[in-house]
Design goal:
Structural class: alpha+beta
Radius of gyration: 27 Å
Strand content: 15-25%
Distance between the termini: 73 Å
Number of strands: 5
Helix content: 25-40%
Order of helices and strands: EEHEEEHHHHH
Bound molecules: zinc ion
Strand order of the largest sheet: 3-4-5
Length: about 120
Protein backbone atom coordinates (compact mmCIF):
# COMPACT_ATOMS: atom_id res chain seq x y z
CA UNK A 1 0.00 0.00 0.00
CA UNK A 2 1.20 3.50 -0.83
CA UNK A 3 -0.26 6.89 -0.27
CA UNK A 4 -2.35 8.16 -3.18
CA UNK A 5 -2.61 11.77 -4.40
CA UNK A 6 -5.65 12.38 -2.24
CA UNK A 7 -3.92 11.08 0.81
CA UNK A 8 -5.77 7.75 0.83
CA UNK A 9 -4.12 4.40 0.57
CA UNK A 10 -4.20 2.65 -2.81
CA UNK A 11 -3.11 -0.85 -3.62
CA UNK A 12 -0.34 -1.32 -6.14
CA UNK A 13 -0.75 -4.36 -8.36
CA UNK A 14 2.01 -6.88 -8.15
CA UNK A 15 3.35 -6.92 -11.69
CA UNK A 16 6.60 -8.69 -11.04
CA UNK A 17 5.68 -12.13 -12.31
CA UNK A 18 2.38 -11.96 -14.14
CA UNK A 19 1.87 -12.06 -17.87
CA UNK A 20 5.51 -12.20 -18.81
CA UNK A 21 5.48 -15.67 -20.37
CA UNK A 22 5.28 -15.63 -24.16
CA UNK A 23 2.96 -17.96 -26.04
CA UNK A 24 4.63 -21.04 -27.37
CA UNK A 25 3.15 -22.31 -30.61
CA UNK A 26 3.85 -25.98 -30.65
CA UNK A 27 4.61 -27.68 -33.91
CA UNK A 28 1.81 -30.12 -33.22
CA UNK A 29 -0.62 -27.21 -33.13
CA UNK A 30 0.69 -25.91 -36.44
CA UNK A 31 0.13 -29.38 -37.86
CA UNK A 32 -3.45 -29.28 -36.65
CA UNK A 33 -4.06 -25.91 -38.27
CA UNK A 34 -2.60 -27.10 -41.56
CA UNK A 35 -4.77 -30.20 -41.42
CA UNK A 36 -7.84 -28.08 -40.70
CA UNK A 37 -7.03 -25.88 -43.70
CA UNK A 38 -6.76 -28.94 -45.91
CA UNK A 39 -9.97 -30.42 -44.52
CA UNK A 40 -11.74 -27.13 -45.17
CA UNK A 41 -11.01 -27.59 -48.90
CA UNK A 42 -12.03 -31.27 -48.96
CA UNK A 43 -15.74 -30.78 -48.55
CA UNK A 44 -16.64 -34.35 -49.48
CA UNK A 45 -15.37 -35.33 -46.03
CA UNK A 46 -18.36 -33.57 -44.50
CA UNK A 47 -21.93 -34.89 -44.45
CA UNK A 48 -24.58 -32.60 -43.10
CA UNK A 49 -27.10 -34.71 -41.20
CA UNK A 50 -29.40 -31.97 -40.03
CA UNK A 51 -29.84 -28.28 -40.66
CA UNK A 52 -32.01 -25.70 -39.00
CA UNK A 53 -31.62 -22.12 -40.07
CA UNK A 54 -33.28 -18.80 -40.62
CA UNK A 55 -33.30 -17.48 -44.18
CA UNK A 56 -33.89 -13.75 -44.59
CA UNK A 57 -35.36 -13.37 -48.06
CA UNK A 58 -36.11 -10.07 -49.80
CA UNK A 59 -39.70 -10.04 -48.60
CA UNK A 60 -39.90 -12.31 -45.61
CA UNK A 61 -37.94 -14.47 -43.22
CA UNK A 62 -38.29 -18.23 -43.43
CA UNK A 63 -37.32 -21.19 -41.29
CA UNK A 64 -35.57 -23.91 -43.27
CA UNK A 65 -34.79 -27.38 -41.98
CA UNK A 66 -33.14 -30.45 -43.38
CA UNK A 67 -33.71 -33.74 -41.61
CA UNK A 68 -33.11 -37.28 -42.87
CA UNK A 69 -32.45 -35.91 -46.36
CA UNK A 70 -35.77 -34.07 -46.47
CA UNK A 71 -36.01 -30.31 -46.79
CA UNK A 72 -38.67 -28.12 -45.33
CA UNK A 73 -39.22 -24.39 -45.70
CA UNK A 74 -41.96 -22.23 -44.24
CA UNK A 75 -42.39 -20.11 -47.39
CA UNK A 76 -45.56 -20.25 -49.47
CA UNK A 77 -43.75 -21.42 -52.57
CA UNK A 78 -42.48 -24.50 -50.75
CA UNK A 79 -45.99 -25.23 -49.49
CA UNK A 80 -47.23 -25.30 -53.09
CA UNK A 81 -44.32 -26.81 -54.99
CA UNK A 82 -42.24 -28.72 -52.43
CA UNK A 83 -39.17 -26.68 -53.23
CA UNK A 84 -38.24 -23.04 -53.33
CA UNK A 85 -35.53 -20.50 -54.02
CA UNK A 86 -34.28 -20.83 -50.43
CA UNK A 87 -33.54 -24.52 -50.81
CA UNK A 88 -31.96 -23.86 -54.18
CA UNK A 89 -29.65 -21.28 -52.62
CA UNK A 90 -28.73 -23.63 -49.77
CA UNK A 91 -28.04 -26.44 -52.22
CA UNK A 92 -25.59 -24.15 -53.98
CA UNK A 93 -23.95 -23.17 -50.69
CA UNK A 94 -23.61 -26.63 -49.12
CA UNK A 95 -23.30 -28.64 -52.34
CA UNK A 96 -21.68 -32.03 -51.85
CA UNK A 97 -21.86 -31.73 -48.07
CA UNK A 98 -25.59 -32.43 -48.32
CA UNK A 99 -27.02 -35.94 -48.37
CA UNK A 100 -27.46 -37.06 -51.99
CA UNK A 101 -31.24 -36.92 -51.84
CA UNK A 102 -31.06 -33.37 -50.49
CA UNK A 103 -28.85 -32.22 -53.36
CA UNK A 104 -31.50 -33.00 -55.93
CA UNK A 105 -33.27 -29.86 -57.02
CA UNK A 106 -36.90 -30.26 -57.90
CA UNK A 107 -36.45 -27.27 -60.17
CA UNK A 108 -33.93 -29.16 -62.27
CA UNK A 109 -36.46 -31.85 -63.14
CA UNK A 110 -39.68 -29.88 -63.29
CA UNK A 111 -38.73 -26.40 -64.40
CA UNK A 112 -35.60 -26.15 -66.54
CA UNK A 113 -36.14 -22.41 -66.96
CA UNK A 114 -35.92 -21.93 -63.20
CA UNK A 115 -32.93 -24.22 -62.81
CA UNK A 116 -31.06 -22.17 -65.39
CA UNK A 117 -31.34 -19.00 -63.28
ZN1 LIG B 1 -38.58 -21.28 -49.11
Amino acid sequence: MVQGPDGGLVSVPDRATRGTEGHHVHSSLIGKVEKANRYARELDRISIDRLSLTFRGDNDTHAVTLDAGTWHCTCHYFASFGSCVHLLALQKIFGIMLPEEAQVSIFAAASPELAAV
